[in-house]
Input
Amino acid sequence: MYPGADSRKDSKPRFPTNKAAVLLLSMILLIGIAVGTTVAFLVARTEPIKSTFEYAKVSCEVTGSKENVQIINTGNTAAYIRATYVVTWRDAKGNIVPTPDQNLYAYELTENPTNNWVQGKGGYFYYPTPAAPNQETVGSLLTCKVTKQPAEPEYFLHVEVIAESIQSEPIDAVQEAWGVTPPDWK
Output
C-alpha cells in the first residue's frame, strides 16, 4: 500500500502558505478587478461632453468714408471704443510727402461733427457708451474733404483712422488699459 502524506508525522505541506501574503494577494486582486470594471463601465457608458464655452473676442473695424467715419464692434461682447486719426498727403506710389504748397493743396477737417464722441486724454476720441456686438457707432468721428487740388494732382489726401476696443466689463479693464474712466474719459 501507498503511505499517504498523512502517514508521516513531520511532513510539511508541499507549498508553504503564509496567511498574511494570501490575504494581501487576494485584496490586490479584488481592488484590481473593481477598478478595471469601473473604468470599463465609464468608458463604455459615458457620452462625450461638448464644450459650449466661448471666449470673449474684442475687436473693431473702421467703416464709412472721409465724410462719415464710424466704427463697428466686430467682437462678441460689449466694448468701449476709442479712435484717433492721422492725415497725410501721399504721392502716386503711396509714399508720405511733406505738406505740399497750400496754395495748390488744402483740406478741411471737422472733428466730431455730430457731438457723439468725447474728446479725452492722449488725443483720442471716446465713444461714450459700450457698443454691443455688431453695433456701429452713431455719428461721425470726423469729416474730411479736399478743398483745393490741381486738375491733375501730384499728391492725394490720406486719412487713417486708428480705432481700438476694450471689453466694457469689468470697468477696471478700461481704467487699467487706457488710463481713463468712463463716462468722464479723463
